[in-house]
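Hi R.,

As promised on Friday, here is the backbone we talked about, encoded as structure tokens. Could you run it through your design pipeline when you get a chance and send me back a sequence?
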């Protein structure tokens, strides 16, 4: 087992280096290597428990993805994300359930829906392929958000369908189960994320803080599962809370330690997921042959299922994009009015006029909140104008919705009483593998082919963002009182002043982040520069002691 483990680490490292040089995404290379290795005697005895993937690997991966996801983009695209992760998964499960019931003899609709639920959700790990392509930020936000949340929907449908095979199905019961699962997971995840940050802000050792962060996704997912809620959603919510609050609650050194170590964890876990997918092919095929079922037939069914998932996804995404475009036009139509209101709110006379014209007397705090809503509304309008959604983006959203390790792991949780269980597992595995190889292997070229021509207005807007950010940092620095430098030549006051400036600038950037007034990538770069400056000052102070 030790040899297998060490070999896996080396293969993951080699794939991470060779993949970009060969023009192949590392996850796809690992799947192929895993399939080939499954026929070697050394790996013949390797068995992967599906619970290891669902309960041991996915929570930290989803948590890490949620931490790094821009919270403002997630909020802006939440309507699309919730539709993709709930409505689309339910619709796909039912359509695929009917398909499987028709093509698999003796399966029945309930078991067909169970297999449809297994095949329907896109995979957060597979979606990492999309992040490496130059696609729209809105597309990335929708795909990442969908893959973070749709597993809960799929697993609830899977459990409900299995129960329905032995008892009467209750629509309202299933809806109540889903609502309970998500609601409890949100509460548990938010509570764990906040408590973990409160504990970690008291810890000065970055190594200890990072070790605690490794436990956070499990501290969220395990209690949620014990309460019969979604552990994966709990881990995601804990990650979102951490991503929003960590820049204010944790020191720069702690965040840098988290970032570096979590990147290593992601590389190892993602690589392990794709390798294990490939390693399981031999045992799955042998199970089908032992059951005297047709491997070729299962593969053909999987091909049909994959085509059907793409068609159902396209049928859902097309009207979704039209609805999002209509919403964007509605927001843009308000731009002039909001701009005029913002200009009036910028003067004491304008505030007084607005307060006088309101039906009830507005307090100063209420006026400030109203001004903040206007600012955020205008920022959202600029976001929609800068990142339009058209048929190109729609094609990427449809094609980049890949299946992955979740499908394989969930399939292996099917009970032994499932009819033709080995065939169902092989179908799920084949759908996931074909999805990764066909869709994942062509997503990069597709994105480049469909890329919009460079819009000078968008480039100019991004440059304006950077200039505005520089001006904000300069104004913030000038607002910090100058220090009193002692006559003896020592400079502790100057160092303290520089740290105070960095703290004030970080607070200003985080306020801009919360208001959505600056592009997420530009903002992240600026925050990283502040962290680097602060760490450098602290290191020079330690060297001088």
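Update: got your reply. Pasting your designed sequence below so it's all in one thread:
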């Amino acid at each position: 087992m030790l040899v297998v483990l060490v070999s896996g680490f080396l293969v993951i490292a080699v794939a991470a280096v060779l993949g970009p040089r060969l023009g192949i995404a590392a996850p796809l290379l690992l799947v192929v290597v895993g399939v080939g290795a499954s026929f070697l005697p050394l790996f013949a005895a390797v068995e992967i428990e599906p619970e290891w993937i669902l309960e041991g690997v996915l929570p930290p991966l989803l948590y890490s993805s949620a931490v790094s996801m821009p919270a403002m983009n997630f909020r802006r695209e939440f309507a699309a994300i919730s539709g993709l992760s709930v409505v689309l998964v339910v619709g796909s499960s039912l359509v695929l359930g009917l398909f499987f019931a028709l093509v698999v003899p003796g399966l029945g609709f309930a078991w067909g829906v169970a297999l449809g639920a297994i095949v329907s959700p896109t995979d957060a790990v597979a979606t990492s392929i999309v992040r490496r392509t130059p696609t729209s930020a809105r597309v990335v936000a929708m795909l990442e958000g969908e893959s973070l949340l749709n597993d809960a929907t799929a697993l609830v449908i899977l459990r409900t369908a299995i129960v329905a095979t032995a008892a009467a199905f209750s629509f309202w019961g299933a809806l109540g189960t889903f609502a309970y699962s998500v609601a409890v997971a949100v509460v548990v995840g938010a509570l764990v994320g906040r408590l973990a940050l409160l504990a970690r802000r008291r810890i000065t050792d970055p190594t200890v803080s990072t070790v605690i962060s490794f436990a956070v996704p499990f501290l969220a997912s395990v209690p949620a599962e014990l309460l019969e809620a979604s552990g994966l959603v709990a881990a995601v919510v804990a990650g979102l809370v951490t991503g929003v609050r960590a820049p204010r609650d944790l020191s720069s050194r702690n965040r840098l330690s988290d970032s570096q170590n979590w990147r290593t964890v992601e590389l190892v876990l993602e690589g392990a997921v794709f390798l294990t997918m490939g390693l399981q092919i031999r045992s799955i095929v042998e199970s089908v042959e032992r059951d005297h079922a047709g491997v070729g037939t299962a593969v053909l069914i999987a091909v049909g299922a994959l085509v059907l998932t793409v068609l159902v996804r396209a049928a859902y995404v097309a009207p979704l994009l039209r609805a999002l475009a209509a919403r964007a036009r509605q927001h843009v139509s308000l731009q002039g009015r909001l701009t005029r209101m913002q200009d009036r709110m910028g003067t004491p006379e304008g505030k007084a006029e607005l307060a006088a014209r309101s039906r009830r007397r507005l307090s100063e705090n209420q006026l400030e909140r109203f001004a903040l809503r206007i600012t955020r509304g205008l920022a959202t309008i600029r976001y929609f104008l800068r990142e339009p959604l058209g048929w190109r983006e729609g094609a990427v959203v449809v094609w980049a919705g890949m299946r992955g390790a979740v499908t394989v792991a969930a399939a292996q949780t099917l009970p032994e009483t499932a009819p033709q269980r080995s065939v169902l597992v092989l179908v799920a595995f084949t759908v996931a593998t074909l999805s990764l190889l066909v869709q994942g292997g062509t997503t990069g070229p597709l994105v480049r082919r469909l890329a919009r021509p460079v819009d000078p207005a968008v480039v100019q807007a991004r440059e304006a963002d950077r200039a505005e950010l520089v001006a904000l940092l300069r104004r913030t620095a000038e607002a910090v009182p100058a220090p009193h430098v002692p006559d003896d030549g020592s400079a502790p006051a100057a160092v303290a002043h520089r740290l105070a400036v960095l703290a004030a600038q970080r607070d200003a950037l985080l306020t801009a982040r919360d208001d959505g007034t600056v592009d997420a990538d530009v903002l992240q770069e600026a925050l990283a520069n502040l962290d680097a400056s602060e760490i450098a000052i602290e290191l020079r102070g330690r060297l001088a002691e």
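One thing I noticed while checking it: Residues 457-544 form one domain.

Thanks again,
M.
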